[in-house]
Amino acid sequence: MTMVRDIDTRGMRHCETTALGVLLRHEGVTWSEPMLFGLGSGLSFLYWDSKAMGFPFLGGRVKPFELTRNLAAGLGLELLVHETTSARRAWEQVVAPLDAGRPVGLQLDSYHLDYFTTKVHFGAHVVAMYGYDEENAYLVDTEQQGGAVSTSLASLARARAERGPMTARHRSFTLTVPKDLPSPRERIIPAITACAAAFLDPPIANLGHRGIEKAAGQVPKWLERTGDPHRDLTRAARLMEEAGTGGALFRNLYRDFLGECAELVGGGHLHTGHTLYAEAAALWTEVAELIAKAGESGAATHLEQASTALRDLARIERNAMQALIRLEP
């Protein structure tokens, strides 16, 4: 058996920040989950639908692994990423740092993991691995998935080899913290303004505040879009609140990040952004509840109410980001 020593196996609310937390705490960095999410400029919005999809998807963060890349670039962390089509080589790339006493991040499809009770393919799931023996891999996943967990090596291999939307080619990664690591205070404003710029000027109408407006126009049609409203609408609501988002489609995490920043940096624009994202977080939870009610009852009025709330959210978040982008170093 190989186990990395002195691992803090606390699970957090989101999978990628949970894995980042494990890797960084092993390097002596103990920042909060909201701080990791915010410094990685993790907040976004996506309305995703296509003929190949069974039902539309609402996303609340940047694309898979971009948060990790943003965090590493902003803080000067050494991010070493491996990808390969070879399962044998992929295992060697994981074993090497583990045998050297370092935890490893993995991107994989959670469908195949033994401890996952909800069997839905999701190829952008991220875990931290800190040990293995002849039969099992020892992982840290989110709090809701159990924190310190294990899965068979065979299931881990299937999860890493899966191909499909959002998957990566056996991606593994390690982080090394420099001796002159900047404090969060130094990187707060660049991370916030970069996030705000992307949100306010998205390249397509499905993203950022424009994406929320698009969702407002599409959500009332969701009962026509599905043959099983109870399944699809209640699942959509659950994904917004429970599927590693920290609640409110990641807005709770960003609200808490801005709250920490307000204490560290202060300033009127930052306080405005924090206040507006507190309002937005509560409203996103209300939207999820309305979508769930529509799924349970089949009543279109709940989706009309959700649409109205989404239009308010597009305005609130646009105003918040317009305040935050004005932050000056």
Automatic annotation (TrEMBL):
This is BtrH N-terminal domain-containing protein. Residues 14-142 form the Butirosin biosynthesis protein H N-terminal domain. Coiled coil: none annotated. Pfam families: BtrH_N, DUF4872. Residues 155-324 form the DUF4872 domain.
